[in-house]
Predict the 3D structure of the following.
Amino acid sequence: MLLAALPVIAHAQDDLVKKLESNKSDSAKKKFIFKDDINIERTSVKNQASSGTCWSYSTTSFLESEMIRMGKKPIDLSEIYTARCVYLDKADNYVKLHGSLSWGDGGECHDVINMYAKYGAVPQSVYTGLQYGTSKNKFGELQAILKGMLDAVVSNPNHKLTPKWKEAFQKVLDTYLGTVPEEFKWEGKTYTPRTFADEVVGINPKDYIEISSLTDKPYYKKTLFLLQDNWSFDKVYNVKMNDLAAIIDNALKKGYSVAWAADVSEKYFSWKNGVAFVPQKEWEDMEEDEQKELFNGPKKERIITPELRQAALDDYTTTDDHGMHIVGTAKDQKDNEYYIVKNSWGEKNDYKGYIYVSKAYILYKTTAILLHKDGIPKNIRYSLNL
């Protein structure tokens, strides 16, 4: 079973990108006319390449925008340093749970905040994670070896775990991703990952809140969100569905960007065209000509209800696929509202790495958002007791 599963782990992100590249129309950019409204300052578009580290790229981009918002000089932070820290902690949980935990590149937005709080941060120039001889991330072999090693540990051939497995696991990470420097120079001063995070990046991890909307859990309380990649079993604040949009809108108006986790596996999420919306019909219910015309200009959207949203979470039509960074708002020629979303798949789409996502899509397909608590409207903060 392990050998059958490994290609899925190694190539899931590549397969997702290829699938989404097929959701396209040659005339979409001519038929959708967007006028940007709010644009939060951010750093350049990156490429996570063949790795499932979108959660780190998106939330690291978010932290870089937070630095800009705070009046600091933006720094290209190392996404793979954070991912490496996650792999260490996730491996510990995997072994403690005797392998009954999802393993792979995946993670959640809160992982970046948690690792920042625990392990600090480093610049990209100090830790690229490209120790294994490629110019871009390519994690298939690495993850296959890590999974095989952990499963060997869990099988417990000595009938008692030794303390050496963690050391061996870390040596594999050192070999493929590089050894983390205890100290490094940055602009003439010496830092550790901890002091760099505290003195240069300067965010307070306690200021950041993760939020979702679930009808089967109490509103305005913290609840465990059962997702495969929530390996740390963190809790999220649960709000009503329309609060998700209200929170994002308020944050953007006040200059706060938002880290966004969502399902992007739908045919109406077109990475190539840089447009995502919710048509009135599902893809399989459309006639062939309707499918061909899907991205040839704005369409009427489905009305999203809390019940529809929850049903999609429950029946696996909404899955925890991808993390991105919401950086602004826009409208199309018919005055429909969209969010400007920064992705981490490079610049090979119609909007050079960005995608316009409708408000309906956000309400329907969001799994969670993460933002600074001051970006949340006061009435909702009061309900959340923040």
Observations:
- The chain has one domain: 2-18+26-383.
- The first helix runs from residue 2 to 21.
- The CA atoms of residues 1 and 189 lie 50 Å apart.
- The radius of gyration is 21 Å.
